[in-house]
Every structure is written in C-alpha cells, then in structure tokens.
Amino acid sequence: MTTTEAPAPAATREALGPTLIRLREEGMDLVVVDADLGNSTSARKFQAAYPERFFTLGAAEQNMISVAAGMAAIGKVAFASTFAVFAEHAYDQLRMSVSQPNLDVKLVASHGGLSVGEDGASAQSVEDIAVMSSLVNFRVIVPADVVEAAAAVEVAARTPGPFYIRTDRPKHRVLYTEGARFELGRADTLRDGSDVTLVSYGLMVERTLAAAEELAADGISARVLNMATLRPLDVAALERAATDTGAIVVAEEHLVHSGLGAMAAQALASRRPVPMEFVGVQDRYGESGLWHEVLEAVGLTAENIAAAARRAVTRKRG
Prior knowledge:
- By secondary structure, the protein is α/β, with parallel strands linked by helices.
- 39% of the residues lie in helices and 19% in strands.
- The strands form two sheets. It has a seven-stranded mixed sheet, with helices on both faces. The chain has a five-stranded mixed sheet with strand order 7-9-8-11-12, with helices on both faces.
- Strand 8 (196-200), helix 9 and strand 9 (222-226) form a beta-alpha-beta unit.
- Helix 1 packs across helix 8, helix 4 runs parallel beside helix 6 and helix 9 packs across helix 13 (302-317).
- The radius of gyration is 19 Å and the shape is globular.
- It starts with 15 loop residues before the first helix and ends with a helix.
C-alpha cells in the first residue's frame, strides 16, 4: 500500500455498506444480517439497494449470528453487523455455529474500542480482540482507515471462512490512497527505521506515526508497522523488525494483557526476544467523554508511545 495525506477524515464504519453494494453489483451472492444498528454500522445502505437480501433481527445478537450461520450453511456469503461490545453477547453462537463448522460468516463490528466516547464504559469494547482471536478459524482485522476498511471487507467477502472486522465510530485521518490493496496476514510498513519498531492497528496507527515524527526530532529512527491483521499475525514482519531494530513498542486500543502486544510477545519470545514496551488499556474500563479525551485519559497518545520507544531503546542499549 502507498500512504498519502487525504483532506477529508472518515470513520472506518462508513466502508461497510458501500462496499457490500459494489460486491453485490458484481454478482457476489451476499446477504446481510443486522441487529438493529444498521444505520450506525452503515449496513443499512445495503438494505436500501437490496432489501430482499437484508434481514434485521432487532436487538438480538445471538439470533443474528445463528441466522447468519444458517445463511452461510446454504451457500451464501453472510455478513453480520452490530457494535463490537454487543458482538460479544453472541460468543456461544460464534463458537458453536460459526467457528466449529468453519462457515462463511463475516462479523463486522463497529464502535470498537474506547473511541465510542460519550457512550461510556458499558459501550466501549476493550476485550473484543482477545475474545474473537480465541475462536478457531477466525481471521481478525482492524483497519487503520476507511480505505483499508473497504479493502478488508472485500478480502473477507472473497475469502472462505469466518472473519471479525472491528471498525470505529469517529472520523479520523485517511492514510491510504483510494483503491489501495489489503493483504490478509501481511503487516504494512508505513515508515522505515533502524532504532525501534512501533506496531499498531486501527486509529492508533495515526498516533504511532505522530510518535515516530516526535522520535525523529530526537534522533531516534522508528519503523512503523500497521498490523491491521491480528489473526493470522504477521510473525515474519515482527521477527524482521526485532532483528533490524532491536526494540519493539506495541500500541493498541485494547487491554494490554490480551491484545496484539500479548500476541507479539508470545511470537517473539521463542524466535527473537528483544526489549518490548506496551501502550494500551491498563486493566481498566473506559469512561464517558469526547473520544479523543477518553484516549488521552487512559494514555493512548503519541507522546506516551514515543516515551515507551525511548524506554525500549534505552533497554536495548543498556
């Protein structure tokens, strides 16, 4: 992928409906199952174009997954959409009806992480990556911007088997050019560097790039990896980063003890252990406030990523 500046911020959730419409126009045998939040996830746009292929279950996520699994069992490519925190309600159905039979169900969950903002802790899913990554056969993706989100939805639609894609609520910077490719299981190097590697996903990628700029002003060269695919994890990219830069910082909008940081540490422990630091949600839930203020309140800032990088570099040199 090639990065570029884009003038109009956008939320990754905006990609779902328009992408599904385009895929159906191209002849893909899609159905969409909704749990009463299609306006927010943008799935309702598909309903307007193809009402006979859109099924709403109301606020019943367990039923939504069961119906999606039934549709997949008869050969449809079934997309289900709700909020990330509500997707967790259907864990048993995801495990028994989707994961075990390895069905073609794609769960796209918007309003992930803390950036739900004013809706508060009860609506902020900070454990969904751990929950969904625990499911056998599932691929787990968190795109960095709306362009990558559209590409990820298409890859999920064209790849057999279950997917979980987390999208976010707020509009934020667009990093990629329109039409950029997304490669499942492949980290994207947004910036090269030799002293430390910063790894992130979702809207934290923008903050990680800002941290790299801050570090450059201090003479620290930081590589930046967008790890949009968390499962399957690009272990080879992590191993190269550990070898080339000797220190790694993982930044994520998720609990640190069970997210990408834990996965990366496990992968590197037996291959190329190096000093690592972790910037994420530290064993707590969120709070109500403007989304960027909530992220700041729990320490998910460019400044904290840069500080973690300095610690990692110091440990490497020590």
